[in-house]
Amino acid sequence: MDLRDLSYFETIARTATYDEAAEILGRTKQALTKSVRRLEADIGGTLFERDGRGKALTALGIALLERAERLRLSVDDIGREMADLAGGRTGLVRIGTGMTPASHILPAACRQLRAAVPGIRLELEIGNSDFLQERLRHGTLDLILCPMDGGDLSDLDVRVVLDETVVVAAGVDHPLAGRGFELAELTEHGWMLQSQSSAMRAWLDAVFTSRNLAPPRVMVETGTIGVLTRVAEEMQLLTFTSRRNLNTLVELAHPETTMPRQFGLMSRRDAYLPPAARRLREFILATVAAGPA
User: Fold this and answer.
1) Where in the numbering of this chain does the HTH lysR-type domain appear (predicted)?
2) How confident is the model at residue 270 (pLDDT cuts 50, 70, 90)?
3) Would you say 91 and 257 are in contact if contact means Cβ atoms under 8 Å apart?
């Protein structure tokens, strides 16, 4: 089985058409078709359904795609490890994080890392847990600090680093601020919330729908609440954010809308982790062990 054919197959499987894959790879459609035929001959089965104009994977194709991705990640890991060894590189760390650890854990850990490795370079991405976990699994991030929200994490090395509480919040001038309220009253006001793919959003929606109430009426949808608290305040919107990141907002306490969760420091299990990334992991864990963030 040719590694180049496997690489082509992975791109073909993840694009809408052979034409799109051909453009990405700089190959002709005919060359890619022949590549797939060679793989099918090696395997003894078909990788794509032949009916209609679609390009759906067969069960065999789905299985091969998963293994092809694993192989590519392994090859990428080998390349990075050999380059590090050959070049004696100080290192690049690619880390993804949510807003809370970016504010409460990373600053001290990065200060220690720079003191220990002055030439270090960081590539930092901020996003929700689904986005960061996908990036980690695809090998484009070395480490992530994100909520351990649902999903199967068995393929990842996970270390709990932070407990936090997510609450409903609003500006001090909001009609519900500073007084008690019934859960149903929250449905009468506009909200600024995470996207519908967010585990936090799903949890909050379920609080209402499970009690036969309408889900929050979203006026502003964003991937990152933490940097937009002023927007919620100025528009007199409710929001759902970490108690640590309220800034000028005030908590609207209600037991049904108080969500405990944990953040984990994650890397790919059994994958190559560059020396600089290992050092940063050590400093993050030391920062957490030193006291509450």
Assistant:
1) 1-58
2) confident
3) no
